[in-house]
Every structure is written in C-alpha cells, then in structure tokens.
Amino acid sequence: NTVARHTYDNIKATGFYTINHVHEALIADAHHTAAKYPKTISEFDQTALTAVYQAGFPAPYVAEAVVQLGLKFLQEVPIEVNGTILMLGEIQEIRLPAALVGAAGMVDLNAAKTVTITGLDSNHLPQLLERFGYARPKPLED
C-alpha cells in the first residue's frame, strides 16, 4: 500500500466485494478500470461497464459479466517477499446462466467465454483441454 488503493479501501470499509468474469468484448474497458482515477471518480463512469446492485448484496457487480461472484471479506495476508496482500473472501453468492452449469456441476468457462489475464496487460481465452476422473494410485507392481 505505497500508493492509494481505492478497491482495497472499499473492501476494508464495506467488508464485501465482487469478482466478475469478463468476456472478450469487455477486455479494453476492464483493463481501463485499473487507471488511477481520483477516489471521487468511479471506473464505471469512465468505461462502458455498468454497475448493478443485486438485492441484499452491498457491492456492485459488472452487469455485462456472464459469471458474477459476491464475496464477504475474511482476511488479508501480507506477502512480504513482494510487498503485496492476498485478500481472502468467502463466496456468498454466484450468479450465472443455468445453461453454463453441466450435469456434474462444473461451470463451462469456454461457453461463458471467460477471459483470463496474466501480468498487468495480457488477456487470453482459456480452453478446456481435458477432464479427468478422481486421481487414484496406480496398482503397484510386484
């Protein structure tokens, strides 16, 4: 926390936050939310992303996100080696289209077109390679 961290401050003040899966059409605006705006300026007002509040949950979701997670802040863990903070939260609600949930309860992130990010600026579309059953030890040879 060597510079202002408005999201961090909001989480600490309210005790709640959201994680929103963005899809390819949103990546430029999602990236722009990291710009250092004054505390009085909402990133929602500076992008095409729309803040939406769901009944009973105090933090805003990104309306355009296909997968939305609402979390309650539990704990922060300082990581001394690089001066960062790991924020731990408990999922309070999950919002997503039922069509994305398979028979085994897995969420199809390919169908959601969820984009991942590496570093600060590289966006990727993940691809399911394989699903395996529960791993069990192989039989030992005599």
Description of the molecule:
The protein has 142 residues and is an alpha+beta fold. The chain is 16% helix and 29% strand. It is built from four helices and seven strands. The mean pLDDT is 92.
Ordered list of secondary-structure elements with their pairings:
Blueprint: H1 6-14, E1 16-21, H2 27-32, H3 43-46, E2 51-52, E3 61-62, E4 67-79, E5 84-95, H4 109-112, E6 116-118, E7 122-124
Antiparallel strand pairs: 1-4, 2-3, 4-5, 6-7
pLDDT under 50 segments (min length 5)? none
Q: Strand order across the biggest sheet?
A: 1-4-5
Name the helicity range. 10-25%
Structural class: alpha+beta
Mass-distribution shape: globular
Mean pLDDT: 92
Distance between the termini: 58 Å
Essential attributes:
globular; 16% helix; two-stranded antiparallel ribbon; three-stranded antiparallel beta sheet; 142 residues; 7 strands; alpha+beta
Short description:
Helices cover 16% and strands 29% of the residues.
